[in-house]
Write a structure and sequence with these properties.
The protein is an all-alpha fold. The chain is built from 11 helices and no strands. Helix 5 runs antiparallel to helix 6.
């Protein structure tokens, strides 16, 4: 019974940590989306002529992508608010919802690249730093604290990117691909995404460390309470104290109390160590 109670407590604590991690992931993804939107805007302004030179038209597709990044940020910040409400109500996220959410998020880079390719009528997008955006979603999936979910994120990104590349290579035959490799923004974009991905990975690792530390603290705190009260009150009362998130309210009950006196306890206790006495009493 005690093992079951411990497992239940740890599971509840883990579920709370998962929601907190999902909240952190949503916030980070929202911030990352705004950063990408800002970087794309700056790059488009400074390299506007280069875009026209490569694509032979205005970067309309890039404008659409910037708008989609802003929408993504708005979505993630709203998800963060929703998760906070769930945490307050003590609810649990159903696994199917987490998988659907991860799939939708990981599909966003694929949709963005497809839009740019169709609008610009070119497959040059697959040579740009755009595919590196998948790394952001994969890295942040670590905060889901679920191995299968993280693998699912990587699998979704890999399959979608491969299908997209096959489609665009067959759909468009774009001359002058070598111009992309000579453009500064080609390498600048990749460097920025790698930098952001590294920072996010570091943050994710730090969050995992804190989650593990918190779990040990919860278990340690429970053991302290059990050791402190377990010898003086019943196990049912200890479990109730542990299950209460706030101060336990007093209750009025009809009970039967029996007072006992151990015969010969005084001379018994005089000849023994405190540890022996406590063990004898319990």
């Amino acid at each position: 019974m005690e093992n079951f109670s411990n497992s239940k407590l740890i599971e509840e604590a883990l579920q709370r940590e998962i929601i907190k991690s999902e909240d952190a992931r949503a916030k980070l993804l929202g911030i990352a989306a705004l950063i990408f939107a800002f970087v794309l805007s700056v790059v488009t302004i400074f390299y506007y002529r280069d875009f026209i030179k490569v694509f032979n038209q205005k970067p309309v597709g890039i404008y659409i992508v910037i708008f989609l990044f802003v929408l993504l940020a708005f979505r993630e910040f709203n998800i963060s608010k929703f998760l906070k409400k769930m945490l307050k109500k003590g609810k649990v996220i159903k696994p199917v919802y987490r998988y659907v959410n991860i799939f939708l998020e990981t599909t966003i880079p694929s949709v963005m690249m497809l839009i740019v390719a169709v609008v610009q009528e070119s497959n040059l997008i697959i040579l740009t730093p755009a595919p590196y955006v998948y790394f952001v979603f994969i890295i942040l999936s670590v905060l889901s604290l679920d191995f299968k979910l993280t693998v699912f994120t990587g699998l979704t990104a890999a399959v979608e990117y491969f299908i997209l590349v096959l489609y665009l290579l067959n759909k468009y035959n774009t001359p002058g691909m070598e111009l992309v490799f000579k453009a500064e923004y080609f390498y600048l974009g990749k460097s920025i995404i790698l930098l952001i991905s590294g920072g996010l990975a570091g943050y994710a690792a730090e969050q995992l460390r804190k989650k593990i530390s918190n779990s040990f603290e919860i278990i340690s705190e429970r053991n302290k309470i059990v050791n402190m009260f377990g010898q003086q009150v019943s196990k049912e009362i200890v479990d109730e104290l542990l299950s209460q998130k706030e101060i336990t309210e007093s209750k009025r009950k009809f009970v039967c109390i029996m007072f006992l006196d151990i015969r010969g306890f005084t001379p018994f206790s005089e000849k023994r160590e405190p540890e022996e006495i406590i063990k004898y009493q319990n």
